[in-house]
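In the laboratory, one determines a bound structure by crystallizing the protein with its ligand and collecting diffraction data. In a computational setting the workflow is compressed into a single prediction: the sequence and the ligand go in, and a structural description comes out. We illustrate the idea with adenosine-5'-triphosphate.
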Amino acid sequence: MCVKPLVIVKFGGSAVTFKNEVKRANLQVIRRLAREVYESMFHVNLVIVHGGGSFGHPFAHKYNLVNGFSDVKQLAGLAETRYAMNELNQIIVRALIDAGVPAITIQPSSCVVLRNGSIVHFYLEPIRLILKLNCVPVLYGDVVFDEFLGFTILSGDKISSYLALKLNAERLVFACDVDGVYTADPKVNCNAKFISEIEAEELASFLKSISADSGVAFDVTGGIIGKLNELIEPALRGVEVLIVNALKPGFVRRAILGEEVKCTRIVKHFRK
Ligand code: ATP
Ligand code: IP8
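The predicted complex, in structure-token form:
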């Protein structure tokens, strides 16, 4: 029997929502990405993870959820953030189902437990069984319960990297609203240089050199720097890691299928 390779795809909030507004999904992009997933799913097994964008981050920021429980006033924000992520998830899963993808939500706060922000339990069996049925599990960055902090935010990037390692993914595709990694934010610095390939070990020192400004003040999981930090480990362990522009039609599909596409690759070693 031919086993299809596993690809984890993170739909970045910068692509599937309008990140500078509150709770506004980019339906056009979501529906097109859903079609690209449909076109890919016969060739690879897929797990989709989406970010918080303008649904999760504004509430998580307002109620300071990332630092954990400190005040009962946060509990309203905890519930509001969970609810907002559920709303975005429903929009994305609806679009996937409409495109013909058997998409099944896995709610992270119900199957993950954290200790000081690190994953200590993640019940993966449902995901494995969903994949066995050739269905597509859909997870998302979420507010998750924590043994020390009470709760904190678990980013979709962290979930994606974790799953890539635990489920032996071949490829990890991060779809966002720019072509990949630049020497500075390409939206604010027109001299920013595009980086097509970077070695995982070099990435750590590169991260110290770039500005922490991701262009949106309320990204509670560290914007591009938080994301890149999560990519070092999977790349070092041999997973092919790509950052690609989801606003460009066909780019995510090509990245999923391992076809030639403009993107940034985080590699273990440069190709000879
Ligand atoms: P979310 O966390 O909501 O899912 P995302 O995964 O789409 O969002 P962001 O954390 O918003 O990704 O990071 C992507 C953004 O980072 C881009 O919109 C870009 O403007 C910004 N950015 C800042 N610095 C850089 C850089 N050096 N290279 C590339 N993008 C950068
Ligand atoms: O957008 C954060 O996940 P990310 C999710 O992948 C919330 O960083 C709830 C803000």
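The chain has a mean pLDDT of 94. Keep in mind that any predicted model is a hypothesis to be tested, not a measurement.
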